[in-house]
Amino acid sequence: MSGHGTAIPMMSSPCGPLSGTAEVPGDKSISHRSLILGAMAVGETRITGLLEGEDVLDTAAAMRAFGAEVTDHGGGAWSVHGVGVGGFAEPGQVIDCGNSGTGVRLIMGAMATSPITATFTGDASLNKRPMARVTDPLALFGTRAVGRAGGRLPMTLVGAAEPVPVRYTVPVPSAQVKSAVLLAGLNAPGQTVVIEKEATRDHTERMLAGFGAEITTEETEEGRVITLTGQPELKPQVIAVPRDPSSAAFPVCAALIVPGSDVLVPGIGLNPTRAGLFTTLREMGADLSYENERTEGGEPVADLRARFSPDMQGIEVPPERAASMIDEYPILSVVAANARGVTMMRGVKELRVKESDRIDAMAVGLRTCGVDVDEGEDWWSVAGLGPGAVPGGATCESHLDHRIAMSFLVMGMAARSAVSVDDGAPIATSFPIFEPLMARLGADLRRA
Ligand code: S3P
Question: Domain total for the chain?
Answer without folding.
Answer: 2
